[in-house]
Known about the structure:
Helices cover 32% and strands 21% of the residues. It is an alpha/beta fold.
Amino acid sequence: xxxxxxxxxxNQLIKFLLEKxxxxxxxxxxxxxxxxxxxxxxxxxxxxxxxxxxxxxxxIGKSLDIDEVCEKLVTYKNEIPLWIKIKxxxxxxxxxxxxxxxxxxMKIINERHKTNKFRPILEE
Length: 124
């Protein structure tokens, strides 16, 4: 299966950063992925478990460029995190992505974020 949502997440990140922050050089920013500590519900599917225990652990807390982070946030079934909360570091050099432990298809993302033009991205 093609991981077409890599392009979708990249476009959404760029759109969010350009509209909601004063960051202009997107390619110079480093992205740090962490699990959302406020999420109460645990992973529910096999792909959630694969991402949580096999794919993402070596990337959690590490600085990645935009292409790397978008590649890692899409499952082998083309699912993406249910939400991605964005925090900008004080020096505007790092973007912290607090992600849901649950990964879902675009249909569910679209239903959950009906009024959010940056879906699945949430401003924190």
